Amino acid sequence: MDLEPSQHADHLLKKLLSIWDIEKHYWYPLYDCKRSDVIAFNADYIEDIESKVLDIQNFLLSQNKDRIFEMQEDLTIQMIETTSLDPSYDGHYGERFWFNEDMNWVIYASHEGSITFGGQELISALKDKWQDWAANVFLC
């Protein structure tokens, strides 16, 4: 895992916060977001479900993204292999975001049992794969 140089990490952080309307320490659905292309699911619907994690990874790989960024709760940004993406809250790393340099999608795992997806193309691809998605939307 390559740690991003500070200047590049600062640029990525500012871009992520601006493009995805992240104004607080936490993000959607814990705080409102002005974007309409976000959806949050119950974490239990995705975490540790290998087929769902593979669906997410495969979508990203289909976008020629074999490496993506992971931002931990302490704002540390690293580049990781897409195949190692584990979209979940982790007591060790805390809340995490995953995104690419283009910022056309984002994934956020919260401490409140939600996993949020941003980006219409990603959301549409997952809804197509997950026929029971509507019954698993996170409700605050």
How would you portray this structure in words?
The protein has 140 residues and is an alpha+beta fold. Strand 5 and strand 6 form a beta hairpin. It has a seven-stranded antiparallel β-sheet. It has three helices and seven strands, in the order E-H-E-H-E-E-E-E-E-H.
* β-strand number: 7
Mean residue pLDDT: 92
Beta fraction of the residues? 15-25%
Biggest sheet: strands, sense, closure?
A: 7 strands, antiparallel
Task: Please list the strands of the largest sheet in the order they lie side by side.
Answer: 1-4-3-5-6-7-2
- The parts where pLDDT drops under 50 for at least 5 residues are none
Sheet/helix structural class: alpha+beta
Q: Rounded to an integer, what's the Rg over CA atoms? A: 14 Å
Task: Give the proportion of residues in helices.
Answer: 25-40%
What is the ordering of alpha helices and beta strands? Answer: EHEHEEEEEH
Shape: globular
User: In whole angstroms, how far apart are the ends?
Assistant: 34 Å
How many helix segments? 3
